[in-house]
């Protein structure tokens, strides 16, 4: 069903992550959400805050498995970089399309977003993978994390004053307003963007952490048991280091702080280690197909699910003499009459995930993988 060169546990991890993305992005009612399915208001980290960094971590791991064989041939490097640039650009443009759809108002379009960040992290991580070895990548990771910490905590903010980590007064927010302007930032914040310019720098660090993990898993001079043991040891140590650093440089997804990179990356490392042990070593694979179906078409389902939600809100249906969006009509007709507000909201999100599984399943069965 899945080509042999793919790491099944990685596809499962990707599938779990994308399904979680769709779950937390599509509650029935944004006013009724269980706390673990919400992002932390600012500092701190909920399970939901671990979803996006897990995906970027997976991007890094996947780069290693996709490019390692061709990297060994220097004559292939130029072609690898061009392909990475093309894929990164496509991801960025898909993100812009999502931001523009359906009104296509370029005057207020959000320039950066989830897919845009994935595209940037993918290209720059792939470039580093092709051009450097794992030791150099490790040093670059440390440099990036320390540089970002120094910029955010030591550099005064123009027009504000002392360095700070406030929502609208930190250096990253100032740079967002300077470069992409308030008209093109995240609409919920208006004066800064959680996927903005400066915070993309440590996000690249998350991709590098994934590449280092992928390189470790592919090593041929270590047994599978050794690989798994060190994934847990390294992941645990990295997460603890992130928590310790978080005492001075708080764990914060919106700022993608260096401590957040280490904490979320360490947990992702342990999660992959567990799945690798369970699936690829122990052979417990019967439960994996639904997640693999999500994992092998991750970008496709993320993109289309966002498009469908926007379309459903544009389709108007008469409900008790009032025009409401199709999604609102479905939610109020089939979920809220039978469940409490918070459970109806969760049930809608779960149903949405299952709806997409019904679409992805036949694609998986026929080995249809839409590559971006």
From TrEMBL:
Transmembrane domains' residue ranges: 12-30, 50-67, 88-104, 110-130, 137-157, 196-217, 229-248, 260-279, 291-313, 345-364
Span of domain Heparan-alpha-glucosaminide N-acetyltransferase catalytic: 6-222
A Pfam family recorded for this sequence: HGSNAT_cat
Source organism, top-level taxon: Bacteria
InterPro entries linked: HGSNAT_cat (IPR012429)
Keywords: Membrane, Transmembrane, Transmembrane helix
The protein's name in its UniProt record: DUF5009 domain-containing protein
The species this protein was found in: Pararcticibacter amylolyticus
Taxonomic lineage of the native organism: Bacteria, Pseudomonadati, Bacteroidota, Sphingobacteriia, Sphingobacteriales
